[in-house]
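Posting here for the record, re: zinc ion.
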Amino acid sequence: MDQKSKRQSGIGKTLATLNMNCREASILLANAGELKLTRPERWGLWIHLLICGTCRQFRAQIRFLSQLMAAAPKEFMEIGFAQCTRLSTQRVTQIKDLLRQATEEE
Ligand SMILES: [Zn+2]
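Prediction output follows.
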């Protein structure tokens, strides 16, 4: 591969990254704390967030969850959500009924 071809493939790759879809954007958003994004990925994500309200909403939800996790008591993080929350049987039944009603209405 000559220099010109290499450069074109690099530009092509960058353009593809800038033309990011929701799936790619959500993966980057979900892993933003762990991944170090490349410059094209940061630009692509920034451009995508400018035009996509759904992904902006997803980013806001991730930020909110991160804040909740940071504020959670230490024992909560150690034993997990399932052991910390105990719903009454009556409450479980109410939630199931509401979910069933919502499904039937669609
Ligand atoms: Zn999107």
